[in-house]
Amino acid sequence: MTSLTPDQALEHAAEAGIHQLRIPTPFAVGRVNCYLIEDQPLTLVDTGPNSGKALDELQRQLAEQGHSIEDLQLVILTHQHIDHLGLVEIIAEHSGAEVAAIDVAVRRLANFGEDAGREDEFAAVLMRRKGIPENVVYALQSVSRSFRGWGAKAKVTRPLRDGEEVALRDRTLQVLHRPGHSPSDTVFWDSQRRILLAADHLISHISSNPLISRPLDGSSERTQALVAYIESLQKTREMPAEIVLSGHGEPITDHVALIDGRLDLHRRRADRIYRLVDEQPRTGYELAQELWGNVAVTQAFLTLSEVIGHLDLLINDGRVREVEEGEVVRYEATGADGAAASDGGG
């Protein structure tokens, strides 16, 4: 297939029975892309947030395809974020649809409210350790609590294993766990049509933020989200996909070039952070301020996650180390070989 425009990619996907439904969210990212797979069972990939506006829009767009919520037989969840699963409980109650998600996320999805509180506490401890002021931590916790109403618990009736296949009447979707943006990120590969349903694993217009999250097994030791995300991107890069259907924005028709650009971005950002640390030891919060200034409170944890991810890369390379200063951690250069190349500001 020759390279397609985004509109042509959507038309091609629709001809293959995969219809994009653009559902409104209250978040800065804008609308979320859910996908109706016209097959047996009739399948919805992701749901949108738990709001009346999102539900109305989902019903309207399903009706445009000749269906209703009651017709749905299978709901597939790509990951744990509330803009992708908020309506799942309502849909399952009204349709009786099976709910499928990666097996490692089943307990987390079933205990949404309780686990959201634990996630907030995990994040608060981390933020304090990385130098975020207490008033910002408190404000972020308040924002997070206010967001919970747009989420919902999900009773997964069909746990999916990494690498297994979901067989529909006219297609087979391979389940591929791709942690990074979240610990539960899962993509679904239609090898026959070379279409990848990627959700937030890969987005054309923004780099998916590898958010620091509590491990799905409940352990206190955080995972290295950016390290995991880069490994996931490298696996996706090797796939012969012709169309990547994302969770936000337009389809991707050259995922190799996009991934190469993202990997280069992360290398350059790590080099820039190294130069800042080499000037003088800094906390994670100080580094975030150097890179992005005083961002809105709602963005403070996103930028901190970004910085910590790149510091993980530098620590793993032996170029940076953590230094304890009471209850706060600072980062300093080790003086090891591997000085950063200039990125022109990255």
Account of the protein in words:
It is built from 11 helices and 13 strands. The protein has helices spanning 6-15, 52-64, 82-85, 88-95, 106-110, 112-129, 134-147, 225-237, 255-279, 284-292, 300-316, and strands at residues 18-23, 32-37, 43-45, 74-76, 98-102, 158-160, 165-167, 172-177, 186-190, 195-199, 243-246, 320-325, 328-333. The strands form 3 sheets. It has a 6-stranded mixed β-sheet.
Short summary of the structure?
By secondary structure, the protein is an alpha/beta fold. It contains eleven helices and 13 strands.
Strand order of the biggest β-sheet: 1-2-3-4-5-6
Gyration radius, rounded: 21 Å
Q: How much strand?
A: 15-25%
- Termini separation (Å)? 34 Å
Mean pLDDT: 93
Structural class: alpha/beta
Number of strands: 13
Largest sheet: 6 strands, mixed
User: What's the total helix number?
Assistant: 11
Compressed to H and E, one letter per element, the order equals: HEEEHEHHEHHHEEEEEHEHHHEE
Helix content: 25-40%
Tell me the overall shape: globular
Low-confidence stretches: 339-346
What are the main properties of this structure?
globular, 39% helix, 18% strand, disordered C terminus
Layout: helices, strands, pairs:
Elements: H1 6-15, E1 18-23, E2 32-37, E3 43-45, H2 52-64, E4 74-76, H3 82-85, H4 88-95, E5 98-102, H5 106-110, H6 112-129, H7 134-147, E6 158-160, E7 165-167, E8 172-177, E9 186-190, E10 195-199, H8 225-237, E11 243-246, H9 255-279, H10 284-292, H11 300-316, E12 320-325, E13 328-333
Parallel strand pairs: 3-4, 4-5, 5-6, 10-11
Antiparallel strand pairs: 1-2, 2-3, 7-8, 8-9, 9-10, 12-13
Helix pairs in contact: 6-7, 8-9, 9-11, 10-11
